[in-house]
Amino acid sequence: MGNLRSDNDQRMLDQYTQQQPYLLALDSIIFGFDGEMLKVLLVKRGVEERTWSLMGGWLRPDEGLEQAAARILFDLTGLTNVYLEQLYTFGDPYRDPIIRTISVAYFSLVRIADYETKISGEFQACWFSIYDLPTLLFDHGDMVELAIKRLRYKAAQHPIGLELLPDKFTIPQLKKLYDAVYNTEFDKRNFSRKILSTNLLIKLDEKQKGFSRRGAFFYQVDRVKYQAITNSFLNFIPNSELGL
Amino acid sequence: MGNLRSDNDQRMLDQYTQQQPYLLALDSIIFGFDGEMLKVLLVKRGVEERTWSLMGGWLRPDEGLEQAAARILFDLTGLTNVYLEQLYTFGDPYRDPIIRTISVAYFSLVRIADYETKISGEFQACWFSIYDLPTLLFDHGDMVELAIKRLRYKAAQHPIGLELLPDKFTIPQLKKLYDAVYNTEFDKRNFSRKILSTNLLIKLDEKQKGFSRRGAFFYQVDRVKYQAITNSFLNFIPNSELGL
DNA sequence: TTATTTAAGTGTCAATAATACACTATTAAA
DNA sequence: TTTAATAGTGTATTATTGACACTTAAATAA
Predict the structure, then answer these.
(1) Predicted TM-score of the model (pTM)
(2) How distant, in Å, are the alpha carbons of A1, A5, B77, B201 from that of B124?
(3) Interval A171-181: pLDDT, tens
């Protein structure tokens, strides 16, 4: 009886050890918004570092996937507590010509202003408009394309756009962000009606100075409501505008 | 110069070879609908095959991820051309207690009737209602939970429910499917209005016999329109019903 | 001090979509 | 021919969407 179990265990273990293992990488599509354009953070790496690519790294033996993605993001940007969501796993046998590598892609949303103050100089990194990207390494172009689709899909029904803005922001800034994400121009009256109807924003007494004569009121995210709503549908953007 | 490049290449290769490789598995959440209940197909495997688990297998060196998932699905069900979508990649360091394994989970939608005729006897497989599942191996319970969420999310705006029904089906059958997916009861008048307004269904002359006195008309999917619409939003289910 | 400029902020109306709700039609079987 | 069981259909109410234009606030220039 004990013998049977042992045989079984051995068969099990054999099943594992006979398998081919693969390298596992993580790549992050890092979105940022500079007030005008939706941007992606790219770095130089690869052979002689001629090619722009997504920020990436290897999975360590003691790490979970998201944990690894967060570490790699921290190494580049110095940021923690960043919006991070698994996008897709890319595993074409020849996606990396050197050796087969499976890449789990994450997309993340960062506040560019935070990033700029904390960056370490280790990496040659640069923000690119999503509408004007260079040729990317391997299948990173596909990754970015998919990430943009996912961002549009998701931002239409979840308030994740707020992750891209500073703590205090104005409605016109938020509208510009959505304009940039969907590459369109929303009607400001309908937009603010819809956004404010969620009761997710708290109006502050303070006004933005310098940008316009009149100045726009700052708003803050109601974190309590935001958490509660994170997993529900909202439908921010009219379906007809999406054209997906 | 040639020397420099060579050094660089060597450094690159070192970067790869110094990395820990991992086993890569694929697990599939296979949904089916028997006319009444939404079900998941489970198999027995693991130590002494006491535990129900998702159907899974290992990635082969020459396969893409989806290709591997399709192969594994075929091995169990004999089905090809099945709806298959990457769900999520699970990589907790200790999810598999024997050896670290990364699992790319796929969810698939099959027509139970097709399956029943083609099944090979190789696996001990069984359909379980999604509302009455046994304890599952490793993190497979999480996988199923996530798959149900994704199915609900997706079926609300894409006509993927049709993938679960036979070629010819009635509106009451389709409604029962949506009732099962969302664990609720939709109003049949509003439901059929909404479904028919998509113009995605073609009404046949034939009626379903035997189930009800009157008999319901069969419909078929308009494959041309279905393809065209696959990547767009539809919003089948009113937001308020979803409660996600 | 007043006029000018610039963006912020707000309201209404019409069309569409969503929801709630109940009766009639068809067919098989009794 | 009556009964039983499900199929199938319509309307009225309300909520949401989308189109559209003027007023307000404040800094700057005259």
Answers:
(1) 0.90
(2) 23, 20, 11, 36
(3) 999 999 999 99
